[in-house]
Hints:
- By secondary structure, this protein is α/β, with parallel strands linked by helices.
- It has 11 helices and 10 strands.
- It has a domain at 135-141 and 195-414: 3-Layer(aba) Sandwich (Rossmann fold), CATH 3.40.50.
- Helix 5 (223-241) packs across helix 6 (257-268).
- Bound molecules: beta-D-galactopyranuronic acid (GTR).
Amino acid sequence: xxHHLILCLTLIALTAAAQNKNAPVNYDESQVPAFxxxxxxxxxxxxxxxxxxxxxxxxxxxxxxxxxxxxxGITPKHTGIKVKYETLASGPALGGLxxxxxxxxxxxxxxxxxxxxxLLLYLPRNVAGRVPVIIAYNFHGNxxxxxxxxxxxxxxxxxxxxxxxxxxxxxxxxxxxxxEMALQRGYAVATxxxxxxxxxxxxxxxxxxxxxxxxxxxxxxGTIGIWAWGYSRIADYLQKHExxxxxxxxAVMGHSRLGKTALWAGVQDKRFRVVISNNSGCGGAALSxxxxxxxxxxxxxxxxxxxxxxxxxxxxxxAALPFDQHQLLALIAPRHFYVASAQDDQWADPxxxxxxxxxxxPVYQLYGMQxxxxxxxxxxxxxxxxxxxxxxxxxxxxxxxxxxxCYLDYLDxxxx
Length: 416
Ligand code: GTR
């Protein structure tokens, strides 16, 4: 009898999980539920925040804890992991515009396990003094980001089921990487394949640099937490070992799932002066409570390894969320964030991304700074560049030359 009951309950649980994958997706603005975003400046005990000191001492840590415990998982402070670097290649590249370096990171965990990741760094030549840097992961290996044939394949390629597919071919993603434009404007760019830090597949998690088990407790980090931790390890290297890099002018950038990751990294690591989220959508810049486009049910069903298990609780129940993504963006202040949307990328809810950026403004005000000014979402191709920034461009889910141009204009303003 007891066994029968357990079996029934298990079946119900499994069916519920399976149904999540098919949770409805809304693209109709008139069907957006009535909602109120949780107030940025009111603490859980009702205290109203009036000063930046109160924000820093009380509200910011409280919100950071919420995002750690309920969305991305708690980032470990002490991992015991040691990192060694080995330069595999270095020399002129991109028609003499850059010095290229390819650096192998070897992570050794306390139990002696080793993991390798490969950094590709382009430094501008003919620039005197230290330069700012943009750090951004790529999806299918360093070799896909450029047509230069001397770029070594990222090691994680070998693990992936689709390793033989066109996705991993040299230069395949080159349109997303405007290296020349950045270098000409005096920026270094550093990239690494995110799978090198932790493969984005539930069956390959044993290859992660940070350990992640098949069974996780409610607030245990998922892969977004691991990738964000990895962004900080790239910053460590650039800060300590690259004399040409200005450690006070580091920006972190990411597209889509890596945009979510860039935000979470930027919130936690104050070395990132500008945090760029390109089409990051659900679990990134977009407000969850609008339930427009991708929603919590869909994302947690499709990618059960990305967030901490506690986030599943809000599947088809965004109304119960005690936080929303505008508060994540606000945690970046007084440093700067840039949220960018694409008109045809409705899955990522461009309007929700804009509103989230706008609703973060009160914290910039506390700092005597100017976040996005009150007003409707700007038209396409009309960037708003304040102490926080936003643009929406024409086209689809992608990173384009237009996006790079806007980011570089903004970085020129904020990092000079
Ligand atoms: C989609 C996912 C989005 C976004 C995207 C990407 O499948 O639903 O949240 O992260 O992948 O990373 O390209």
